[in-house]
């Protein structure tokens, strides 16, 4: 330990912490089936309790809104029609939605029971306060890592208090409780038992996780499965390709899995990109069609499902933009009170559709550093910043405009104390760390289904302010946690 906050962490300490992380599943699987720890910070980020409490209040209301929008078939199909024409992947999703639900003149009522497991990502902007970056309604993972990061910081605080304290902005700050893993497991178990009760089944409820082939982010998934197993659920993992040959229909629209039996909950950790539906070994020109039909098949069965096609459409960037542009009173149609609608409005950052007029305005009048250009993609690599925005806009055809949106760029507070990041068992000091705050929530059949009123814990990902991509998995991000100050 040196003075002036030039903290040096001994290699022995780093290795102890990294081994704790791997031992507790905070890791990625390598190609050779070894594990490497997730990158993480030595000490948490600080946030004002008032800001945190505000986000805790707003997230269940946002989830209620998205739940009800996702079940409003007429609105989804009408409002996202242009985007679906501009984005081929969402065009496929919209065609699946028509298959499942019919059109405005001929509606179908699919048997699936919607289970919305959502992560809403925020940044606490220096000027405007905490604002939504995006909604994640499909494959909204890493709640287990979020809870484990909180536990890891508790471990460091207990074992090496001097190092922990030296990296805190405010030594009086109190850790924010994080039950992300426990609450999502509670929500899924509740939904599973509800489905099972509908059939008066005996034996363990079955949870099916739909995964990507050769996935490396498996430990986060296995942590959730282990928590569900402790609740008495049986858990199984399958790819869409495997499901295409293994699913069938039982009595009462029961979803049946070959070699397992009846399925109660289906949770998609795949399906948000074209390659999840691609299986060249099927030797079919339309393998994407074949595998995406698994989504349609599942929705036709009496099973708790996350994510439904409706949920995926309702958490798209275009829907976020449309909701942002609406007056608050328009939300009342989806069951919100005016006070709840105003609460939602308080965290939505300005967004603009891409039109010829918007492009002209951006190129001639806008302050380019105040905006980010987004397409509909999930995960890292789908945002354009600064002067690159004009270059990208110039390359777009008119037919592609509706797949993109401009959003107010958020500039979160940089951490006032240099922070130690650990990656590949080596420390680096980050002078300008900023954080993204993801809050989890869970609703089943339109009702909150956690012990915390729909809220279900958090995930903090931090990165140097100079880096645009902050994903733990695909960017320069590190796992982090929260401490609160009054």
UniProtKB/TrEMBL annotation:
Q: Where are the transmembrane segments?
A: none
Enzyme Commission code(s) on record? 6.3.2.3
Q: Which Gene3D superfamilies match?
A: 3.30.1490.50, 3.30.1490.80, ATP-grasp fold, B domain (3.30.470.20), Glutathione synthase, substrate-binding domain superfamily, eukaryotic (3.40.50.1760), Glutathione Synthetase, Chain A, domain 3 (1.10.1080.10)
Reported cofactor(s): Mg(2+)
Matching entries from Pfam families are given as: GSH_synth_ATP (PF03917), GSH_synthase (PF03199)
Question: Its Gene Ontology molecular function terms?
Answer: ATP binding; glutathione binding; glutathione synthase activity; metal ion binding
Pathways involved: Sulfur metabolism; glutathione biosynthesis; glutathione from L-cysteine and L-glutamate: step 2/2
For this chain, the family text in UniProt reads: Belongs to the eukaryotic GSH synthase family.
A single GO CC term for this protein reads:
cytosol
The family database entries (SUPFAM superfamilies) matched by this protein are listed as:
Glutathione synthetase ATP-binding domain-like, PreATP-grasp domain
Q: Where is the Glutathione synthase substrate-binding domain?
A: 205-314
Keyword annotations: ATP-binding, Glutathione biosynthesis, Ligase, Magnesium, Metal-binding, Nucleotide-binding
Mind telling me which PANTHER family this protein's record contains?
GLUTATHIONE SYNTHETASE
Q: What is this protein called?
A: glutathione synthase
